[in-house]
Amino acid sequence: MNAQGGSGGTNGKLKVAKYWASSCGGCDISLLEIGPHLLELIEAADVVFWPCAADFKYDDVARYPDGYIDVCLFNGGVRSSEQEEIARLLRKKSKTLVAYGTCAIDGGIPALANLTTPSEIYDVVYHRNPSLDNPNGVEPAPVFETPYGELHLPRLYPQVLRLKDVVEVDYQIPGCPPQANQVWKVLQAVVAGQVPARNDAVTVGCGDKVVCDECPREKRQVRVKGFTRPHLAIPEPGWCLLEQGFVCMGPATRSGCEALCVKANLGCRGCYTAPSGVEDRGTAMIGAIGSIIDATVEERAHEIVGQIVDPIGTFYRFSMASSSLKGRR
Amino acid sequence: MVDEQVVHTKAADAAVAGWEPRIIAFLCYWCSYTGADNAGTARLKYPANVDIIRVMCSGRIDPELIMTAFARGADGVLVCGCHIGDCHYLAGNHKTMARMPLVRSVLADLGIEPERFVHEWVSAAEGEKFAQIVRQTTEQIRQVGPLNWPKRMHERGVGHGMDLQPWGDRR
Amino acid sequence: MAGTGGNLSGRGHEFAPDARIGVFICHCGGNISDVVDVKRVADEIGTLPGVVLSMTHMFVCSDPGQGLIEQHIKELTLDRVVVAACSPTLHQATFRRTLTRAGLNPYLFEHVNIREQVSWVVVDKEKATRKAIRLIRAAVERTRRLAPLDKRRIPIYPAALVIGGGVAGLVAARDLATRGMKVTLVEHRPFLGGRMAQLHTVFPTGEQARDLLAGLVHDVVRHPLITVLANAQVVHSEGVVGDFQVRVRIEPRGADERLKDQGNAIAACPEETLNDFNFGLSRRKAIYMAYPGCYPPIPAIDWHSCTKCGKCVAAVGGKGITLDEPPRDVQLRCGVIVMATGHDPYEPLYGEFGYGIFPRVITLQQLNRLLDPEGPTGGQLLSGGPPPRRVAFIHCVGARQLDGQSTGRAKDYCARTCCTAALHAALAIKEHHPETQITSFYQDIRTYGRGHEVYYERAAEQGVLFIRYKPEHPPRVVPDPQGRWPLVVQADDLLTGGLSLEAPTDLVVLATGVGHHDIAELIGIYCCAVGADSFLMEIHPKLRPVEMSTAGVFLAGSCQGPMNISEACAMASAAASKAAAHIAAAQIEMDPFIAKVDEAICTGCQTCLTVCPYGAITRDQARKIAKVNEALCIGCGTCAAACPSNAIQQLGFTDAQVLSEIETLLEGAAVI
């Protein structure tokens, strides 16, 4: 890797950056998951910014010429002033900006914070958590005076935003995290120069159907008589999990992961972004599930639907920031 | 140092002079829309706040339509269909019947007051019932005040962030 | 089949930015313009992009009004039209035809309701005007997303199937055949005639029911175009509207036309069972004839009671009776189906007004069998005894019931015919036994029909007492504590302020309501719409009373609701007429608002297959996507709402169209 972040380094290799915003670190690991292909990657590309794995500073990036970075993989949601500033910085400095992973595309799990408020979060994290040792009730302060000057901390936003909410995004690679084989396919295309710059949030590294297409189980076109959960029942093999009553987001989730979770007998959680005609897959799934319930009287419909635990957390688990209503008022 | 949400009091919002509840209603053509016509033929009177969108069957009412209505600024949404057992298309309202509780649960978790989302079965002969539903829904939404979802989302930075300068430019 | 037109991509975006829209706003002779400032509305709408014409007219639906639309379409090359007027249920079809005459696709049209839903209900004129503007603006936006559509035209196979051989089915079959249609009539019992055969005289003419029926049956069975299949049921149906392939299962009759010695065969049979033709008042053998003069005039074997002992066979020397014949299936093809499956009388619950506990409590249907000289007692009311001194009728049994009182909501409707029928029976009793005292306990007397009121008058003239009761306090039937009478009816007489009365009586007759006849399988096969009262449901009670929402299936008679014979015949003729019109037109026209799959996006998740109640969606196994059968699709849009990829859209109600309405209606609602 080229440790010099200087301007105009022309050694014929691609300049690649990776940044993590509001995330868990999984996307960085997913890049490493390409395994031995990393060696091929290193042949073709230089990392010029990757906070998780290399010691480049923001100032380094700021000093790059505009468009210096060939491909920037940006994962995580944007929910602080720092993340927004860096998102804008990286957009300026990158020819191609990729929203990497579902957090950057749809908000991901961090976007569930849109159901609460920063002050609620602070209250729990710094005051009410049972495992806390914070007798003086110290909270992070926006500005801290030291003898050597003021220290500033980034502001927490009330909303977890998607990358495309703040800057123009060229490509999106979905997944929580994106699966290694898909990542490598995309990187190969990038390395081979087959991914043109500046496109309108085109989703790559996935299929063009939904998880049902990759799922080995079969539908019997029966209506759902009741909902259960993975720890409460053992699914019948070969039969669609959703029809059996295990909530599965498969019908409203983009294919590409090869139905990993379903093959492990767990209903799809919905991490691989929305199918191509859909913005709000949580609501799309509600429409679908409500339609296949086996009830001809209201009490029964309410009863069955009531068996779905935490609907908002289930259907909007990864896509709160892409939903129609975005979050709690 | 938390970016506090601006606290919206009902008074503050309603202070926008002359605010009137904006309610979108989805009515199925065969029963509830005809029921609404029935109210008109009987010259019953009700507030002007409910704008009716007709669909052929309440089964057409995708939860996305309801969410979009709120997202675009509706203060309330009304969904009407045929009584269970009377659906012109056999079972369309069975789907509505199962979808609405899920919608209601999600709206509640999003902080949208339950009074804002009303779901009623109205038959073609129930003009008086329809008029009463409109009056009651308009009044209860007037009590809870404007929702103004686009404004809230704008304030949270949805779609534009906080429009901060990129890091480098600050130096 | 003619195509359904329209290219769809994605959410049904058929956005026409250069649309030339004409808007016509109706005064409706003041009905609208007295409240809504139509001129101001026209001016405002005229400022919208693409609106080439925005004008008002006194009566847009009138000939001159329609002529104006036609003229402007041509002169201004309009390609979208909006009419803001009364409810679309009235004139939407009218205006669509106007567009067709002007050479424009009739579905490039939006109808806005600013009368029933604005001017007639909103008091404040300013608010009404603004509302009208909002609704019309939304319609204008919607028109930009409309695609031309064509009505579906489905060819009809020129034959009819009538299910049910009672009076309604017979009339329908006869009327269809008279028009030259080939008809198959299927009756699930071994004998034709239905409920009418169980009557003795009919009101208001007093004629013999079975004589009338015999004439009708004669016309039907002799007609060269009609095939009658008795002891037969529809078990399977395939194909689409206009071309049904129906499998009918004919149960073995047991006897055939070779059987000459019917009397001996029946006498030899050792098995007996309750005779349901006589509502359980008598017994019959396992091999039987339903009633005198029945058709087919060949005995049938009731296989539930028959033990196959063979005694009947032995009694007739083996000729004409076969005990081991299996059922046989007949395949037939038809283009239209008339449902004439009839009703069942309400069976009172055990103990309801003493029914089942006291043998002297009977139903009106049973009374009619007793009064029938060809009935189980030869016309005697109390068999083997003197005529009754007193008879009490109780009306509204199993009808107009309050919730929870007996069987609940399903029987809260009036059964229509029983008041006249009860009075008719009362007068029949009086005719034979003028000295019999009759008391009628009623809620209301509904002798509504032509020639019916006279029964009420005559009954009163002949001394029938009428005691009115409140539904909350129905009469009570108890044994006479003094034992001088079999029963006493206790009631609170509403007309004298609730005075408690006791009427000792020899016989209590319950004038019972009617319920649907159970045809759950047929309902499933043909996806029939059923009302909350469990009867089959018509498309529209006023304008389309004999058609069902399943295209090509028609309703005749009491399967649709309580009605008397005149009404059943009228409906049956209407159904036959409609059905014949379809066959004559050689095609059925259906609305084009059907589901369409965007094959590029469909993910093959099969949610829509599970959702469709008509089975109109199947899976293309090769391409792994959904396929809509355009002839079966009924146009509800439920699949469109259910699809988790937004790949299936309902033409005319696409997401893009409906969302544009929502967004336009709410413009300016939220102030940022």
Mind sketching the topology for me?
The complex is a heterotrimer of chains A (329), B (171) and C (672).
Chain A (H helix, E strand, L loop, with lengths): L13 E7 L5 H7 L4 H8 E5 L8 H6 L5 E7 L2 E3 H13 E7 L1 H5 L11 H11 L14 E4 L2 E4 L3 E6 L1 H4 L4 E3 L6 H12 L10 E2 L7 H4 L26 H4 L15 H4 L17 H11 L6 H8 L5 H5 L14
Parallel strand pairs in A: 1-2, 1-3, 3-5, 5-9, 9-10
Antiparallel strand pairs in A: 4-8, 6-7
Chain B lengths: L9 H5 L8 E6 L3 H10 L8 E6 L7 H9 L4 E6 L10 H18 L7 E5 L5 H18 L4 H7 L11 H4 L1
Parallel strand pairs in B: 1-2, 1-3, 3-4
Helix pairs in contact in B: 2-5
Chain C lengths: L20 E6 L11 H9 L4 E7 L5 H13 L4 E6 L2 H14 L7 E5 L1 H5 L5 H19 L8 E4 L3 E5 L3 H12 L3 E6 L21 H14 L3 E5 L1 E9 L2 E8 L11 H7 L3 E3 L8 E3 L1 E2 L11 E2 L9 H5 L12 E7 L1 E4 L3 E3 L15 E3 H8 L18 E8 L20 H15 L4 E6 L10 H9 L3 E4 L7 E4 L7 E7 L5 E7 L1 E6 L1 E3 L3 H7 L26 E3 L9 H21 L1 E4 L4 E3 L9 H5 L5 E4 L4 E4 L9 H5 L5 E3 L4 H11 L7
Parallel strand pairs in C: 1-2, 1-3, 3-4, 6-7, 6-16, 7-8, 16-27, 18-25, 19-20, 19-25, 20-21
Antiparallel strand pairs in C: 5-28, 9-10, 10-15, 11-12, 13-14, 17-26, 22-23, 23-24, 29-32, 30-31
Helix pairs in contact in C: 1-5, 2-3, 5-17, 6-7, 6-14, 10-11, 11-12
